[in-house]
Amino acid sequence: MENQQLQQIAEQFPLPAYVYDSEKIVAQYNRLRNAFSKIEHLRINYAVKALSHTAIIKLFKSLGAGLDTVSIQEVQLGLYAGMQPEQIIFTPNGVSLSEIEQAAALGVQINIDNLSILEQFGAKHPQHPVCIRINPHVMAGGNSNISVGHIDSKFGISIHQLPHVLRIVQNTGMHINGVHMHTGSDILDIEVFLYAAEILFDTAKHFPNLDFLDFGSGFKVPYKKGDIETDIEELGRKLSKRFLQFQKEYGKPLTLAFEPGKFLVSEAGTFLTRVNVVKQTTSTVFASVDSGFNHLIRPMLYGSQHHIRNISNPKGKERFYTVVGYICETDTFATNRRISEIHEGDVLAFHNAGAYCYSMSSNYNSRYKPAEILMHNGQPHLITKPESFDDLIRNQIDIEF
């Protein structure tokens, strides 16, 4: 989205606000499909947790995507948005058997990542198809909080526990129709991903009735000009070749599945904020905006970098600013960042704000959550109203003292 479009949105809608570009989402989806065009049965399951608005889910449904869900509520959102149960895979972590059974009753694909629930579910529902999530003990990801395939991760069943998995399957007679892995987010080294894929292939050989192999996702997107990203085209060439070879060895057609979230929606999102105060201290110039980590927590949580532009003064002389929020706690978005000269009232645009931004927002400091706007066919559509005081107290129950 260009400056002019964003400026018009800033004038038309209350700020702060998240803005999503449907054209970019479609382009990223098609890029991934094209990278794996040699695969006859390719399934792209959008990871709902990245951005869970029903309008976004409906957009992916129109493209032919499925959904990757991690909670029963995300399953329900997907069904509400029109997805069919067979288009949804349920990949939770650490949930109760009852939540697994709720999802199974709704008819979605179950993906189990621990031995305890695998045995309990298999004993009670041996005929229900189950995918198994393995932990390949391969370290990938740009931050320890998003690296989920290493040996100390809580995610997945250790590859070293495969004999135990096989005993459970044999004893319960349960139907295993898929195997799954996810190494972590912000994958850069394709060879590391392909190494983990070999572990998945070796695991798959132990299960004769598979329908699909799920390779997770975690593809890195660029966060600033010149930033490195996962080479999807190279990954597509190398993994497709190996997958087709394995499919022949396995002896039956298989579906190759991915579950991208950030890759599909991150670059489509822009977060618009307005500058409240420009504050000069003895050593720093602060630009304080009408937001905080209640709206965008990723820089504080992950150390993530979001490129920031002053769309009110795009051609102004660049100066160094530390961009902070209005939360009564340290909420620094950027430190000593070169940005076109900022004045109070200017609109700042935070890029790569489509994934894990609004979905991780909160009412901390009793602040309202912002609006969400979808730019579709060249027109902005308000898809989430900014919250009000009524929203803040809606579920509170008063008592008399």
UniProtKB/TrEMBL annotation:
InterPro entries the record matches: Ala_racemase/Decarboxylase_C (IPR009006), DAP_deCOOHase_LysA (IPR002986), De-COase2_C (IPR022643), De-COase2_N (IPR022644), Orn/DAP/Arg_de-COase (IPR000183), PLP-binding_barrel (IPR029066)
Gene3D superfamilies, alphabetized: Alanine racemase, Lyase, Ornithine Decarboxylase, Chain A, domain 1
Binding annotation for pyridoxal 5'-phosphate: G218, Y356
CDD domains named among the record's database cross-references: PLPDE_III_DapDC (cd06828)
Annotated transmembrane regions: none
Residue ranges annotated for the Orn/DAP/Arg decarboxylase 2 C-terminal domain, each copy included: 18-354
NCBIfam families in the record: lysA (TIGR01048)
Summary of subunit composition and partner proteins: Homodimer.
Protein name: Diaminopimelate decarboxylase
Species of the source: Flavobacterium aurantiibacter
Lineage of producing organism: Bacteria, Pseudomonadati, Bacteroidota, Flavobacteriia, Flavobacteriales
